[in-house]
């Protein structure tokens, strides 16, 4: 009986670790696809309510459009791209590099999602793109920005950046 209780406690602890971060879904998407990113916030910071979520848009991810969220203020930071990129019949030289949802209040024991749309870059299948997130709470801040070292699993990190793995590009139909 004691072994069963210990196993249950260990399982609960591991599940808590696995769920104890801001994540993104879907976790895989085709290269050069239009991607609907859903940032999943499963908890606050050490019991305090979340009051802002900011996500940095990685190099190569373009044409970003965040979804407004009732009760939250939405802002974006627009910056130049390192080089012009082709997007349909346009040449883009700048775009959204950061999205911030602020001024809301997500209690620690509630769950919510923050959504944006973007075009993923042309990249080799298996390439991992990370979307660093800063979660501000009433009394503290958690920076979900850690990147694993070569050969390290991101699940081993305390505050891993949400990541999307690129899959083969879908065939283009005209």
TrEMBL record:
Start-end of Basic and acidic residues biased regions: 152-161
Q: Does the keyword ATP-binding apply?
A: no
User: Per UniProt, which keywords does this protein have?
Assistant: Signal
Q: Known InterPro entries for this protein?
A: YcnI-copper_dom (IPR012533), YcnI-like_sf (IPR038507)
* Residues in the signal sequence: 1-20
Keyword Metal-binding part of the UniProt annotation? no
Q: Matching Pfam families, A to Z? A: DUF1775
Record domain YncI copper-binding: where: 21-166
Q: Show the CDD domains listed in the entry.
A: YcnI_like (cd08545)
Stretch list, region Disordered: 150-174
Coiled coil (UniProt feature): none
Please state what the protein is called: DUF1775 domain-containing protein
């Amino acid at each position: 009986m004691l072994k069963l209780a210990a196993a249950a406690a260990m399982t609960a602890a591991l599940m808590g670790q696995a769920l104890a971060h801001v994540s993104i879904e879907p976790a895989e998407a085709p290269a050069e696809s239009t991607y609907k990113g859903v940032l999943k916030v499963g908890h606050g910071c050490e019991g305090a309510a979340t009051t802002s979520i900011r996500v940095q848009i990685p190099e190569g991810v373009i044409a970003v459009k965040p979804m407004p969220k009732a009760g939250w203020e939405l802002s974006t930071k627009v910056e130049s791209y390192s080089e012009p990129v082709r997007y349909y019949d346009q040449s883009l030289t700048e775009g959204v590099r950061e999205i911030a949802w602020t001024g809301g209040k997500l209690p620690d024991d509630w769950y919510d999602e923050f959504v944006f749309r973007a075009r993923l870059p042309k990249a080799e299948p298996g390439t991992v793109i990370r979307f660093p997130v800063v979660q501000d709470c009433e009394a503290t801040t958690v920076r979900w920005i850690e990147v694993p070292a070569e050969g390290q699993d991101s699940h081993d990190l305390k505050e891993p950046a949400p990541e999307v793995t690129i899959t083969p590009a879908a065939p283009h139909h005209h």
